[in-house]
Amino acid sequence: MKDLLKRAKNNDSLAKEEIIRMYYPLIIKESKIIYLKNKSFEDIVQIGILNLLHAIDKFDLTRDVDKFPSYALWAIKNGYRYLCRNEIRYNDEISLNNKTDNDFELGLNIVDESINIEEKVINDILYEELYLALEKLDYEEREIIEFLYISNSKPNLSKFSVLKGKDYYYCSCLKKRALKKLKAFISSQFTGHNSQF
Asked: CB-based burial of residue 125 (10 Å sphere; 0-12 exposed, 13-18 middle, 19+ buried)?
């Protein structure tokens, strides 16, 4: 991989094409969750490829080359988030307090200024990734994670074991196993490697 990256950084088009081929499925996957009003799916895919090429140029070869997959994924996702933020800002600028064709100023206050839109977009993306990770768990594992971390009450492991009629030690092992699976899945999303559960 180091040799391939070195060649790509030296503008070897074959090396760049090889890296693009390696990351193309990831770019397609990430492109499918992005919707921008003025961009086609193909445009979004091309932007992902440009983000990957930028990551190749910026990656420091003195670092551990095994870190490149997570660096590339971060660059691709970050590029898309930046694009989404710009789209949101652009839409805000052209939609609020504009004059109509008849020179009437709309002066609409549609956006609640207390809401941080960038944060909401990022939270939505993270929520979607967490939801996908939860889908990888079996029923009992998902149930314990939802009970301990997602419900609005203040539950604890003792309550869960009593509620389910299960041994506390069993529930503790179940929780650890579920968290380990979640961590492995989420790590695989950022490194581009598939984890086996």
From this structure: middle
Measured CA distances, 40 to 36, 86, 167 (Å) = 8, 16, 53
Residues 6+ apart with CB under 8 A from 36: 43, 44, 83, 84, 87
CA count, 13 A, side-chain hemisphere, 137: 25
Calculate ∠ Cα 136-84-117, nearest 5°: 90
Cα distance between residue 78 and residue 122, in whole Å: 10
What is the per-residue pLDDT across 29-83, written as a single tens digit (0 to 9) for each?
A: 888 877 767 778 888 888 888 888 888 888 877 777 777 887 888 888 877 777 7
Q: Which CATH topology does 1-111 take?
A: Rna Polymerase Sigma Factor; Chain: A (1.10.1740)
Least confident of 19-23, 74-78, 101-105: 101-105
pLDDT surpassing 90 at residue 172 = yes
Domain 117-197 has CATH 1.10.8: no
Cβ atoms of residues 107 and 98 within 8 Å = no
- pTM: predicted TM-score of the whole model, two decimal places: 0.44
